[in-house]
Amino acid sequence: MTLKVGDKAPAFKLQDQDGRAVSLADYKGKKLLLYFYPKADTSGCTKQACSIRDAEPDLSQAGIAAVGISPDKPDKQKKFDTKYGLGFPLLSDEDNAVAKKYGVWGEKKMYGKTYEGIIRSSFLIDEAGKIVHAWYKVSPADTVPNVKKALG
């Protein structure tokens, strides 16, 4: 199951790197870049997170908040945030329940091995909680350019 433009974004409530509960409802009335990444502090995930951090002034000017979600525990998310000065919520989806709702948990292949994991994806959600854009199997380098292109 994948989400399409116009779909209602699935609700979530997860713990961030500081132990706070963060929900989709917290962003009602705002645009949200919600992205899913496989594992904190790995090369691709670091590249992606840092590009979002670096684009924060542009995103903020466009009225867009950013939130990342991975299966990592909050303490690992905290170390990742601190190490790279990310400054936006990193949510812990340890049981992958939210990833499954967004259609980003599935079969992957690496080095000839097949396994289940996060399919790197990002979503632009509007002020009413609807999916404006959905990018599945996104490259770490393409998250921010995709959003900028979507904004025109």
Q: Which key features would you list for this structure?
A:
30% strand; thioredoxin peroxidase activity; 7-stranded mixed β-sheet; 28% helix; alpha+beta; 5 helices; globular; Glutaredoxin; 152 residues; two-stranded antiparallel sheet; single chain
SSE topology:
Layout: E1 13-16, E2 21-23, E3 31-36, H1 43-54, H2 56-61, E4 64-70, H3 74-84, E5 90-92, H4 97-101, E6 105-110, E7 113-118, E8 121-125, E9 131-135, H5 143-151
Parallel strand pairs: 3-4, 4-5
Antiparallel strand pairs: 1-2, 1-5, 3-8, 6-7, 8-9
Characterization of this structure:
Its EC number is 1.11.1.24. Monomer. The chain has 152 residues and is of the alpha+beta class. The protein has one domain: 3-Layer(aba) Sandwich (Glutaredoxin). It is 28% helix and 30% strand. The chain is built from five helices and nine strands. The strands form two sheets. Strands 2-1-5-4-3-8-9 form a seven-stranded mixed sheet. The mean pLDDT is 95.
Concise overview:
This protein is α+β, with helices and mostly antiparallel strands. The chain contains 5 helices and 9 strands, in the order βββααβαβαββββα.
Radius of gyration: 14 Å
Helix content: 25-40%
Query: How much strand content do the residues show?
Result: 25-35%
Please give the count of helices.
Answer: 5
Strand order of the largest sheet: 2-1-5-4-3-8-9
CATH architecture designation:
3-Layer(aba) Sandwich
GO molecular function: thioredoxin peroxidase activity
Active site: 45
Family: Belongs to the peroxiredoxin family. BCP/PrxQ subfamily.
Catalytic activity: a hydroperoxide + [thioredoxin]-dithiol = an alcohol + [thioredoxin]-disulfide + H2O
